[in-house]
Amino acid sequence: MAPRQEIEIGLRRTEAELEAGRRARVLMKGNEAIAEAAIQAGCDAYFGYPITPQAELLEWMARRMPEVGRVFVQAESELGAINMALGAAATGARVMVSSSSPGISLMAEAMSYMAGSGTPMVLVNVMRAGPGLGGIGPSQSDYFQATKGHGHGDYRVPVLAPASIGEAMKLMATAFELAERYRTPVMLVADGILGQAMEPVELRFRTPERQAFDWALTGAAGRPARIVKSLDLDPEVLERRNLALQQKYREIARHETRWEGWQLADAEFAIVAYGTAARVARSAIARAREKGMKVGLFRPITLWPFPERELARMSRQLHGILTVELSSGQMIEDVRLAVEGRCPVAFHGRMGGLVPTPDEVLGALKALRGRVERTRTTTSHDPATEHHPGDASANGTGVRTGARRRGRG
Amino acid sequence: MTLHARSSSVETQRAAAARLVYRKPDVLIDRATHYCPGCGHGVIHRLLAEVMTDLDLPAHTIAVAPVGCAVFIYDYLDVDFVEAPHGRAPAVATGIRRVRPEAFVLTYQGDGDLAAIGTAEIVHAAARGERITAIFVNNGIYGMTGGQMAPTTLLGQRTTSSPSGRDAELMGYPIRITEMLAQLPGVTYAARGSVADAGSIGRLKVMIRRACQVQIEGGGFAIVEVLSNCPVGWGMTPQESLEHLKGSVAEAYPLGVIVDRSAPSTARPAAAAATNPEA
Ligand SMILES: Cc1ncc(C[n+]2csc(CCOP(=O)(O)OP(=O)(O)O)c2C)c(N)n1
Ligand code: SF4
Ligand SMILES: [Mg+2]
To answer: Which residues in chain A are classed under CATH 3.40.50.920?
Structure first.
């Protein structure tokens, strides 16, 4: 085997060096890799405000964006940053902002405006532990905020949750694509580990094709003036706009739901986990398999739309599910909604910036198995013991459209 | 030739000979506004429309609408518009400016919008010297939400949220934000005008024109504060409100050009060329 070439990407890497490294594996920090992937995806403008643990992303943009002739502005606040993004995006530019939890709270208002007016934008949240100023350790405590919260009003945004730096890089291009295809803000959530750890990654990037926008503000020369807005004081008109928005969300759910399965084909138990928690889960599953326990991993890649149909189908073959999160248990609510009581759903999580160890997760798995076995000895017929092996979708990665199947990240 | 045809051709000739002294600029959409009778917003829209037309700006303008009574400004001015969240117009305009260097970028904000909730955005857009033209309508009140106290409300002025009059001890003092902004080197032009009477409106138009020209000439941030009336929020007839505007309001907010850094900078290139050793 040829020795793997590992280059550490310095902050002042030139285009030529990047080109040279395109087929090599290089060691990159998550925040910087995400930033570079955004640049390579054609991001025209970045607006940010410093916050740990995503400051390196902003710093990378501060150096690289002017180098490639694009726009970087350090705003006066996250309010400033996202509203700059709103203005730039309204002209049809490909824009991005990034922050961490408290900053995302400030960005919520404008996100709602952008969802309402159909303005594309990519927003990266490198989550930290809350509530309040909380701490700067890795956390997934913004699941509710990302999937059900942030701004006011009846709206959703697609939320992508990579589990590795390489996957985060690939998903940046996807994020811009979804934002423009559906005219919506798109969020990518990472945690402090993904943001700040270094991993060898392939410098392979993708630039989504540019579309011609018939809504973008470019000056009304030779055409009627355009308005990008969310306001409609006529309730009938506003309801119609909302219905159209909901129709768009159904389409996104139908076509853009993404997830990955691992060792699910013969699984009796599954861990549902995303991001860094999914990596811990993999180690725990490997140990459980060594001990003869049939466990697999169900990893949502889109947190919204949540892969509920796929998880529901999977739950029919399972004796129990363990949800692992770096939070008090937020995604578990969506897991339970999808599973609809077909099997027990247990939880293991840590908060405050702590990450559960594989042994902790293994312990939680054993406890779940014990609970299931105890129930089985007291029940004469338990449908949970029915086994449906060989489900074609039990392994591999899923995107709901057959056409867009993805490789494993 | 029939008599009828002859008389109509005479009219055509007369019309052609007549000097057109006043007409509605095309960019001002022919539509009844939602503003209260006597409100100053309409006058300011008209001035903007005239100046923008004179300077040939409408076709490449990208404007930012505020949250406030002027929220529907995009229904009256026929240019590309984006709606900003309350107070954020200067940040939105910054985004537009940075990705569209060729566009004419205009913001229009009220005093609640600009001098309360959006204070950080306006200060920093001005500090960065963003090449945008800002129209700031100071009517001393939150018109849209029903006449509450604004940061610009005069001492003693009764509003629905200062029912016994603004008391400095409890509610602080009116804020002269345009003077504050004028301190910043990024601000090329700052002026305060008024819609109180025909003379003031004429002077205001000159200020708005200058603030637009600054942007065209590549200057920095330009702002025109417009003292305007809100008869409904002030509990006055339109006539009373204009008298008040001329009196107490203009006393608290002096009219005139506060700073104009464009004049020396236009003279600079020649002087620099003369002293530049590399020239
Ligand atoms: C975040 C937020 N807070 C409050 C409001 C409610 N609101 C709408 S307009 C307005 C005040 C507008 O006053 P001003 O800017 O002075 O404009 P005017 O109506 O006087 O022209 C307020 C508080 C809002 N839309 N958004
Ligand atoms: S409330 Fe005041 S500012 Fe608003 S439209 Fe009426 S008069 Fe004008
Ligand atoms: Mg006001």
So the answer is: 262-408
